[in-house]
Fold this protein.
Amino acid sequence: MPEDTTSNLGPIAALGLIWGFTFLFIKVSVEGLTPLWLVSVRTLSGLTVLAVALLVKQAPLPRGKAIWLHIAFLAVPANVAPWAMVAWAQRGVTSAMTAVLYSLIPLMTLLISATISIESLTGRKVIGLLLATLGTAVTVGFQVGTEANMGPITVVLLACALLAAGAVYAKKFVTPHVKALPMVTIQLAMAFIVSTGLALAADGLPLWDQLTAPVLAASLTLGAVGTGLAFLIYYTLIERIGATNATMITYITPLIGVMAGGLFLDEPITTSLLVGGVGIIVGVWIAQSVRRTPIESLGG
């Protein structure tokens, strides 16, 4: 039986804080790393944390060629592609904006699940979707042509859609057959191999003079803490309080992301961003209030 949620407010707050700062770490990292090299560094440092946890817990690896192929495939749409896309987009859009748009992932997951008949769209869920769509329009509409532009915003939204599709794919083909820790450890290993190969082919070696202390600190923290440690906290919470209660992190992350961008990067926190963000969060809450689906993606 899941434990009482109030007894786990510490881990919930910690995870919301970690994932909320993810977008700030990405913003700093891309000042010295290309998007693909950032994914490589992120996956390697996250993989290191998870590999240690895997050894400590002595969790068995999955057996069977099919499940390994599913996990290997999942590494591209759920890690390499969306993480590289967001890293590229954050050169032209604020970390606060990205944090708010990421709130749409649960609703995108719901919409994809409904499209392939895994879940049904009730009236309440449709209202939530419409409200979140309106919130997105408010958030984005007043930003285009100012400090942001439609290209990076569109890329962030496409990345969110990929993460949502990856969550649905994992739920259908992977998570029923293998525990979370070995699954994501293998997934990050595959993502590291793919992203490093692509980075070498597309960008060559990193420019060492651009690897400043802030860039290295941000990218390594993004992987070790924002991916590896965050994953361990998230799935521990699911075991303790259940997937439904664990999804309350969905509402914490964008608030932390907006505050972090404003406080540490001097990003403008506009009225449209705040109003639109509230609309998205309320829409997510309405749509998920009956039956919430845990987010299988690894943070930002």
Remarks:
- The chain has a mean pLDDT of 85.
- DSSP finds eleven helices and no strands in the chain.
- Residues 5-288 form one domain.
